Amino acid sequence: LQGNLDPVALKARPEVLSRLVRETLADFGQGPGHVFNLGHGITPDIDPEQVGLLVQTVHETSAQSRLLA
Questions:
Q1: Dist. CA 25–CA 65, nearest whole Å
Q2: What is the pLDDT of residues 2-11, one digit of tens each?
Q3: 1 falls in which pLDDT band (50, 70, 90)?
Q4: Please, what is the angle between helix 48-68 and helix 14-28, to 10°?
Q5: Distance between CA atoms of residues 34 and 61, nearest Å
Q6: Does residue 63 carry a pLDDT above 90?
Q7: Structural domains of the chain, count
Q8: Which among 21, 60, 53, 23 is positioned nearest to 37, based on CA atoms?
Q9: DSSP of 2-63, one letter per residue?
Q10: Which of 2, 29, 62, 66 would be 35's cystine partner, CB 3.0–4.6 Å?
Q11: Which of 58, 45, 69 is nearest to 17 (CA)?
């Protein structure tokens, strides 16, 4: 499965973005096969720090999920 996060989320406050990423991963459930992606591309007005936070949150949440599996 791929996608599931509205790119508008990248404009949210950092804590909101992190929560949305975690919720997206939780909605997918346990198991392999989720390619985390945006529903559309990243626009030039997005702060690169937000993209970094998204990637960091995916990595941290995925690692925690694997430990619990």
A1: 9
A2: 668 999 999 9
A3: low
A4: 40
A5: 13
A6: no
A7: 1
A8: 21
A9: EEEE-GGGGGS-HHHHHHHHHHHHHHH-SSS--EEEESSPPPTTS-HHHHHHHHHHHHHHHH
A10: 2
A11: 58
